[in-house]
Amino acid sequence: MRSRTESEVRELLRTSAAGLLERLPELADELVRRGRESDEAYRMTVPFEDHWKSTHEGLRIGITAILQPRHERRDVAYAQTVGRRRAEFGLPLDSLMRSYRLAAQVTWNGVIDIIGDQGQERLPALLRSATHLWHAIDRQAVAAADAYRRRENELLGRTNQRVNAMLDALLEGRADSAVAGVAADALGLPEHGRYAVVATRLPAQPDRVHRPDEIGGLRFLWRMRPDLEMAVVHLGDRELDDLVAALTPVVCASAGVSPVVDSLADLGTARRLAEVAMRTCSGTAPEIARLDRRLPAALVVCQPELAERLADGVLGPVIASPDGGVLLATLEAWLRCEGSAARAAAELYCHRNTVFNRVRRIEQLTGRSPARPLDVVELSLALDAVRLLPDT
């Protein structure tokens, strides 16, 4: 009984396939029409001519496969071709899968039309043929989805490489106006706009670093370097204070922020200034340094030989004294507190008279008075040199 049913199934499928091939253009028209009416993604991403040709060919190959031995069938291979092409067009995978489900419906309706009312005795064979048909189309859909994902990953890899190459050119100052225009298209950014660059030191385990692409409503484009990480930030109408606020909960090491520049072509300059700003950070605690608020310290780190001479000439005697560490800490607190002995004493956990005594000791050793503006400039720059240059 089973062998008889299987024979009837094969005969029914052959009859159906022959009838479907005769109606091939009509079936392709219906499938394309229904697909484009029900799915905007197809209308937006796949040209009609390509959609119709690939649908017609897919139906032809799929229906012909019903009549062929398994080793001669080309339906799975063609489904893989379709999957790759749809990935290249940017069609969503869900839309591709819906098209195969719709193809199964249209093909099965075609089989019903061809078989028609041939009596109840053919019902078992008809049900079994449905299983064969839906299984074949499901196998094609799986092959198309696998090929789609592989091609999508290939395209994404190429896109990432292109984006990284563009970012490198911009950050290294190798981008003229022509390159900046191409980069704007590749990165999805305006060529002219308000930008800043962030430079941050990598933590001990950089492989675990994950920076979000959007923080606080600001878009970040991150680029890893051997010892630090860079980010191009499109500010729009936001200010640097907004950028610092967005970075604070994210970075776990010291970071430098460049001044605002007005175009992608200026990012090379911004990158250099962000690195300078980062070099003005000292100590182990993470801090975010804006260059526009660290200009004296930036001068120090950019001229280390002169800064070393300044540190030695101004604060050499203080450093050499037995209580040099305490005196330097007091001077730093005094300058940070704008000459307020009371505030400095609160920071240093001592009496305000102690602060006065230490400041007088610094005056005696350096010959500079915190009461004279020019002397304050020298003391401040020399202190930055001691703080930021490891050999001083």
Structure report:
Residues 173-279 form the CdaR GGDEF-like domain. With 392 residues, the chain is of the alpha+beta class. It has helices at residues 2-22, 24-38, 40-45, 48-65, 75-89, 93-115, 123-171, 177-187, 240-247, 267-279, 295-302, 304-320, 324-336, 341-348, 352-366, 373-388, and strands at 192-201, 214-215, 218-224, 228-234, 255-257, 261-263, 288-290. 65% of the residues lie in helices and 9% in strands. Strands 1, 2, 3, 4, 5, 6 and 7 form a seven-stranded mixed beta sheet that branches.
Coarse morphology: rod-shaped
Structural class computed from helices and strand pairing:
alpha+beta
Number of helices: 16
Order of helices and strands: HHHHHHHHEEEEHEEHEHHHHHH
Count the E strands.
7
Question: Uncertain regions: pLDDT < 50 for 5+ in a row?
Answer: none
Fraction in helix? 55-70%
Radius of gyration: 36 Å
Sheet having the most strands: 7 strands, mixed
Mean pLDDT: 85
Q: Alpha-carbon distance between the termini? A: 98 Å
Residue fraction in strands: 5-15%
